[in-house]
Amino acid sequence: MGTPKTKVPTPSYDKLTAHFQKISHFEHFSALGDWDQAAMMPMGGGQDRGDAMAELALHIHGLKTSDTLAEHLHGAEDESLSTEQEANLREILYQYQQANLVPGDLVQAKTKMAYQCENAWREQRKNNDWQGFKPNLKAVIDLAKEEAQIRGEAQNITPYDALLNKFEPGMTTAKLEQTFGGLKDWLPTLIQDVLTKQANEPKLVLNGPFDISAQQALGRDVMAFLGFDFNHGRLDMSSHPFCGGVPSDVRITTRYNEADFSSAIMGIVHETGHARYEQDLPQAWRGQPAGLARSMGVHESQSLFCEMQLGANPAFLRQLQPKIAQHLNCHFSAQELAQHYTRVNPGLIRVDADEVTYPCHILLRFEAEKAFVDGSLTVDDLPDFWSTQMQQLLGINTDGNYRDGCMQDIHWAVGELGYFPSYTLGAMYAAQCRFAMEKALGPIEALIDAGKLDSVFQWLREHIWSKGSLLTTDELIRQATGETLNGQYLERHLRQRYLGI
Amino acid sequence: MGTPKTKVPTPSYDKLTAHFQKISHFEHFSALGDWDQAAMMPMGGGQDRGDAMAELALHIHGLKTSDTLAEHLHGAEDESLSTEQEANLREILYQYQQANLVPGDLVQAKTKMAYQCENAWREQRKNNDWQGFKPNLKAVIDLAKEEAQIRGEAQNITPYDALLNKFEPGMTTAKLEQTFGGLKDWLPTLIQDVLTKQANEPKLVLNGPFDISAQQALGRDVMAFLGFDFNHGRLDMSSHPFCGGVPSDVRITTRYNEADFSSAIMGIVHETGHARYEQDLPQAWRGQPAGLARSMGVHESQSLFCEMQLGANPAFLRQLQPKIAQHLNCHFSAQELAQHYTRVNPGLIRVDADEVTYPCHILLRFEAEKAFVDGSLTVDDLPDFWSTQMQQLLGINTDGNYRDGCMQDIHWAVGELGYFPSYTLGAMYAAQCRFAMEKALGPIEALIDAGKLDSVFQWLREHIWSKGSLLTTDELIRQATGETLNGQYLERHLRQRYLGI
User: What does this protein do (chains A, B) (predicted)?
Assistant: First the structure.
């Protein structure tokens, strides 16, 4: 795969692939260190881990900016490469350019500060300790701003665009403002219409407690049903659910609530979407930039496809229902579960939000990040900004509740500005994929009822997972769905599911 | 600490310490990768992990043999250093010399092969699959022999001495043969005498099942009683109990048996001994060679002190008894536990052996390793060698039982030849420490009964743990006990405890 039939020597390209293979070995330990810190590491190990992660980040940065690369990149341009090799070369060049934008000492300082801030945040959030968290957050945001400035200047783009590009290559603030701006036109009305419609629907009363280890066993059962390969991955607990690890060993986590199994289980369904993407990335391109997941937005589209397009589908819940009954010894009907999982309920917490109000949480964070970077918002003013926005977007008061307000997410604590838009991009890509898939295969509901869930995954494997980063995001989505990003499919999906129109 | 009162510039020494601090950051990930592989990693992740570990080992090897080090080592010789800095320089030089003995490609090949062999071994051992294991073991042993040859020639010592020195700096085959030779004179008779004495003593019947999670909770309770710091460490499960991680985050494991809690719990006591040593290494020397544990023999002396000198002490078992009763809801008397934990029972498995027959398992492995290295034993002949030796030493037949015979240990599977003698050296050092400690503090039994267990740990902290590698092994033991290694204390201990003389 990826090799032309007549083998022409490609010495420069070969040196590049060997070098990036080596980089992937070191990135293996970044991934392991991150997972372990969140899922396993005791607090007291944080300082040493942070120092070690910073050293590793600096080393990887050094490898990505190595002097010899420019020469090999130049040499490889004149070599006879297959289309896939060309794509890998494009991705290698992109990584090289991105790494060269930022000086190594800033990389190291950011990594160290992020670890320090995150470790403290885990306790501070529990204690609603905004005053304790604030100085750390300031330091992290200052470093992120410095990075944005440097990256922006070097690429001749705005600082915030430069941050977006770290997670979503090619994305711009202008494009996002246009796409997300569309949301603002129809979403508030939609939320109100759905709330009115659901006002008199019965609510599921979760009569727990539900044993945590039984919830775990149920989770593993659901993962297996969704095709998760346990020979190449694990399920664990962490305070913030995530998917980490490497494609040959994908580690997902969730958090459990004894009183309510529903969020832990749907969290697992979500992370399993991420995991399947990783586990099914192209084998032939393992360890190469072309073999990586395309972008954070596309990654999120796979998790949201699993959670929202599949997980909240009535047919999926008909499959889930007996598993819940068996593991948790409780007997909700599939109909009750479907109502529960499509209940719209404006709330404080982004990760617990339903799919209708979720984009509001992202709009808030998108506005805050832009304002941090252009200097119109300071960390001191963040709680007020948060309260005002939550009031406007969802009619919720967050005054004084920092832990469920501006301290709820890990992203800023670790200096990841520019990531949040990926969530709503993901929801849009997921809806767009669903309509394209159903055009080819018929309704997903019918497929699941017919025991053909695998054909859904086969479509995703063929059109998304197996492509890695061989195509650009726009081209990937265009080849899969017939057009580039189009936010209208999300609107169509939400109107269909929540208003039946 | 470690800095002379009048600060004289030490530029070369400072460069060395910065360089070894960096090395310790990469070694952090070796430790994490090893722990994770044994305690967490799914089988399918093994290939990538092995490749990544090999890359990391090569990188660390490169750092330890870096061209600039010779110059700084030379420069540091003329600098004005404190006694402790001199000791650190001695350890830096030793690490540099040891690393320079072996070419990087052999380091990488060994790491890769060890990971491959270990991963397969985990399944093969379960299946008693000697034929499957044999070719892997051959490859690993061949690489270990190559390493021994290269190391021996360069240091002008025998190949097996060169392997011993990796784990026990300064140890020689001659010294071991003399010390272990002494064992052969008195141990077989002692075993027979003890078996005769215990023949009619009542045996504890463990009326399980004992819930695994209850055993885990009991284990954590015992760890806390022994002063394990859970802010800087964890307890997990693995098929082969071990202590790993880094001093700020020490990871111990055990394995559980539903039918019999006693080995899991005493395994935890053993690993807690290792862990306390690591957690109490000198803070001021963290990340420097002088801050590392002294040797594998000294390390094992701390775990065996915990397990044998403390754990099997009747006073300790009087403390353990109510904890067992509480967690496992079973009511054995302290007297019954003491009989159980001092029961001598020649058996197949080294890690399950009592302290009286344990040295026989080491003698067998010591003889086999020497014979592998000098070529008088091949992997093909290992099962026969094993059977013959087990018959001679313990009167046990192991024919055809590979999983509980020559496939039981992980050490050879990962290419660690020269390590096994450390276990019996540890038992000897532990007994020697106990007699020295009791000379100063009075009997341990009385200390525990008086609630002064901490004074035992205080003695170990002062004489062993806080010294790191600031002293040579001989000097460490001499300062702690008044003399260098003396195997007679182990004999005295065993005669006292098992024959009452």
Answer: Broad specificity carboxypetidase that releases amino acids sequentially from the C-terminus, including neutral, aromatic, polar and basic residues.
Active site residue B271: yes
Q: Please say whether the beta carbons of A92 and B68 come within 8 A.
A: no
CATH 1.10.1370.30 residue spans of chain B: 212-347+434-485
Alpha-carbon Rg of chain B, whole angstroms?
Answer: 23
Decide: B161 and B173 in contact? Cβ < 8 Å: yes
CB-CB neighbors (< 8 A) of A47 in chain B: 248
- The terminus-to-terminus CA distance of chain A in angstroms comes to 46
- Test the B interface: residue of A51, A123, A223, A234 with most B CBs within 10 Å: A51
CATH number, span B212-347+434-485: 1.10.1370.30
Nearest residue to A488 via CA among A446, A452, A434, A451: A434
Counted across chains A and B, CB pairs separated by less than 8 A come out at 91
- The dihedrals phi and psi of B77, each to the nearest 5 degrees, come to -60, -30
Q: Which two tokens stand for residue B38?
A: 């044994």
Q: How far apart are CA B122 and CA B43, in angstroms?
A: 9
ipTM: 0.92
* Domain covering A212-349+427-486: architecture: Orthogonal Bundle (1.10)
Contact (CB<8Å) B42/A246? no
**Residue B164: closest CA among B31, B297, B54, B61:** B297
Contact with chain A for residue B36, Cβ under 8 A? yes
Q: How far is CA B49 from the centre of its chain?
A: 24
Is residue B300 marked as binding? yes
A71 is in an annotated binding site: no
Q: What is the pLDDT along chain A (501 residues), one digit of tens a residue?
A: 455 556 789 999 999 999 999 999 999 999 999 999 999 999 999 999 999 999 999 999 999 999 999 999 999 999 999 999 999 999 999 999 999 998 888 988 998 898 889 889 989 999 999 999 999 999 999 999 999 999 999 999 999 999 999 999 999 999 999 999 889 889 999 999 999 999 999 988 888 899 999 999 999 999 999 999 999 999 999 988 999 999 999 999 999 999 999 999 999 999 999 999 999 999 999 999 999 999 999 999 999 999 999 999 999 999 999 999 999 998 899 999 999 999 999 999 998 899 999 999 999 999 999 999 999 999 999 999 999 999 999 999 999 999 999 999 999 999 999 999 999 999 999 999 999 999 999 999 999 999 999 999 999 999 999 999 999 999 999 999 999 999 999 999 999 999 998
Strand pairing category for A249-254 and A233-237: parallel
Count Cα atoms within 13 angstroms, Cβ side, for B74: 5
User: Is A300 labelled a binding residue?
Assistant: yes
Which residues of B are less than 8 Å from A22 in CB distance?
Answer: 55
d(CA A309, CA A493) in angstroms, rounded, equals: 9
Distances (CA, A) of B472 to A257, B179, B304: 53, 19, 20
Residue A157 tokens read as 């783009």
Distance (Å, rounded) from C-alpha A455 to C-alpha A447?
8
Residue with tokens 């083998």: A7
Residues in contact with B56: Cβ distance below 8 Å, sequence separation at least 6, in sequence order? A25, A26, A29, B26, B29, B30, B33
- Please list every residue in chain B whose beta carbon sits closer than 8 Å to the beta carbon of residue A248: 44-45, 47-48
Could you give the angle at which helices B11-39 and B83-101 cross, rounded to 10 degrees? 60
Q: What are the helix (H) ranges across B442-472?
A: 444-449, 453-463
Q: Is A48 on the interface with B (CB under 8 A)?
A: yes
* Residue B323 burial by Cβ neighbours in a 10 Å radius (0-12, 13-18, 19+): middle
Q: How many CA atoms lie within 13 A of A281 on its CB side?
A: 27
Contacts of A496 (CB under 8 A, 6+ apart): none
